[in-house]
Amino acid sequence: MSRARTYLAPVAVILILLGAWELAAQWDLIANALNIEDFLVPAPSDIATSLWNDRSLLADDFWVTLREVLLGFLCALAAGLAFAVVLHLSDTLRRAFYPLLVASQTIPPVAIAPILIVWFGFGLGPKILLIALVCFFPVTVNTLDGLRSVDPQLITMMRTLGANRRQILTRVELPSALPFFFSGTKIAIAVAVIGAVFAEWAGAGSGLGHQILIASSNLLTARMFAAITLLSVMAILLFALVALIERRVVTWDSRGVTRT
Amino acid sequence: MLTRTRESTPDAAVDGRSVHVSGLTHSFGELRAIERIDLEVEPGEVVGIVGPSGCGKTTLLELLAGLRPPDSGSISVGGSTDPAERLGGCAYMPQRDLLLPWLSAVDNAALALRIAGGSKSEARTEAGGHFERLGLSGFEGTRPGELSGGMRQRVAFLRTLMAGRPVLLLDEPFASLDAITRAEMQSWLAGVLGPDRHTVVLVTHDVEEALYLSDRVLVLTARPARVADRIEIEAPRAPDRAAAVTSPEFAGLKERALRSLMEGTR
Questions:
Q1: pTM for this entry
Q2: Which H or E run includes B256?
Q3: Taking CB atoms and an 8 Å limit, are A162 and B112 in contact across chains?
Q4: How far apart are CA B209 and CA B203, in angstroms?
Q5: Which end of chain B is more exposed for a tag (fewer CB within 10 A), N or C?
């Protein structure tokens, strides 16, 4: 299937939904039916207007949030990759830490955000830390699974060619784990934006998440939707960027490391 | 030219190419896989090992290569009985080609040279120098996913050769190929083994393959594997494979091997 056709159906669905929403808002259908004030449900055109009129405000917030997301995400990538390799190389450490790693996922990031603010204040630090915390798990667990799923016969083959532990890691295990690493990375970049919003809600002076709170208290619903749209666009663009890098790096058929 | 050990120390290398096994026995828990196998492979000799599937042929090669310690019996490769030294003296070619999909054909072939610390360009030049002889020229930069089964197997064989070890342990190298490609690969291997004069232990379940390629064939029984028969071949690896494997003498040897196999599985 061509790429245009791949995207045609979802784009059509979005356009139809937006069109229906616009018409319903123009005729005050939702507002009348639910008996609410019509400014509570802005039309897509109102959101577009807000995006344009508040562009300098929203752009500043966009860059603030993007910076938090990228810094937190990159910290999680480095830490997750290193931690996965350490756990892979040591059975003892893996047995000790893996269950804790899984158990840590039962703690909602929303709950940690205020604690981080108490500990580290309103600056960039706690936001990067929270985003890194939510990204760390998918990166670490996926990479570790990738390292552990290497065909044992490949390891034997490397041993017969005289490879030491480090060479087996760098020449076979890490390349084999790359597709797994990228799966984890794609999940991480999507949740990174969610983490940023929680972090900003817990205490911030700028950013798209902060902007949603401010707009909310002023009943500026169109601006809230505009900020949400920008968050979504940011997540989609970052995901696409990671997918693009994956296609550039993993150029081989990774469905099976070897065919028989 | 490929056996660098032989070039540097000619006398030690002759010894370094022989394999001696006596009274080799190995079990997996209660399951007895190998029982009292004796095996002598002289330098430059090709010994074929045939047996019913699941009789422990792969285990035998893993024991020889020092990848697993045997329960009892002695193994010496090139006069050395130490498992680590044996692993250093043998190049083991597994059943599956196990090529790394992210490396080109030449980089796969050069893997042992890179592991030994050679630079990328040196390793490529050295491994690439053999591509023409192996019928692989023009495919140096091709990834394994785009090579045919026969070509993948040849790249895997070259990777084994490039390890520069005096003893080659080949584990059903052509089992995954179709009959026609397998016949081609056998003729090709016969040509390669002649001039290189490696010591080879070839494990296969294909009687014809073993009889055509080997100086001597050991027929093993079903589990536990014992030596059922030893067949000496007068003129192995004849250039005309089709003529060789259809000759009356060959048919006689084949009948003998098949009968030994049948008795061994009873």
A1: 0.80
A2: helix B248-265
A3: yes
A4: 10
A5: C
